[in-house]
Amino acid sequence: MSKHMKRLTAPRSWKVTRKTSHWIVKPSPGPHPIEEALPLAIIIRDMLHHCDTYQEARQIIGGRNILADGRIVTDPKFPLGLMDVLSIPKTKEHFRILKDRRGKIVLQRIDADEAKWKLVRIENKKVIPGGRVQLNLHDGRNLLLDKNEYKTGDVLKIELPGQKILGSFPEAVGSLAMLTGGNHVGELATIAGFEEKKNPMPNLVKFKEGFYTIRPYVFTIGVTVPEIKLPQVEVDK
Q1: What tens digit of pLDDT does each residue of 39-64 get?
Q2: Distance between CA atoms of 109 and 114, rounded to whole angstroms?
């Protein structure tokens, strides 16, 4: 597999210019797919404009000035994806990684208190020796619990940088969900029901707004109101 990436062929979800140079930073392997994550150097240079070159971005990141989910990161290719929290203590800036209505990865500015937690979706779970339950989360984390009190698809609110569970949002009828893919990416919708498939196709989720989408695109973010700040809708001029 190539260690390099051409800027022109970068994932469509990356909100970067395409013809300013030949190459662009390729993210390191991580918990998020390459189409769903941005390397840290691109965020610092191309989105926040805190520097002009990749070398300057490396110096900023290597200087231990950047926190990802409350922990210092020194790899300029470190991938940040959905719901990850980026903090820059020296400038007192905090951002949450989200998607807009065009499917682009964007930075949602948040305050210092909001940067102390994040939302994570349970992708699957299993019982390990000893009877404890292991939850495997969408950002590559694992949580070990004594009780089996959450189901696959539920979203947990966890503390950063620790992983203490602060709350939960079930994937259930009436819950408010953000869509992370498909024709309605970036929209909010209320879950109205589920349709299970008896074949390899993904299960479907029905919404009160009158449409369906596949279950992997559904990310619950609240019961009646969203728990997080959402990107402003861009209006075409």
Answers
A1: 999 999 999 999 999 999 999 999 99
A2: 10
As a CATH number, domain 5-112 is 3.10.290.10
CATH topology for the 176-222 domain:
SH3 type barrels. (2.30.30)
Instruction: Indicate whether this model's pTM tops 0.85.
Output: yes
| Residue 230 token pair | 């959402």
Q: How far apart are CA 9 and CA 113, in angstroms?
A: 37
Lookup: tokens for 237: 């001029």
Nearest of 141, 224, 230 to residue 185 by alpha carbon? 230
Residue 158's beta-bridge partner residues? Answer: 118, 165
- CB burial string 116-149: b at 16+ within 10 A, e below: bbbbbbbeebeeeeeeebebebbbeeebeeeeee
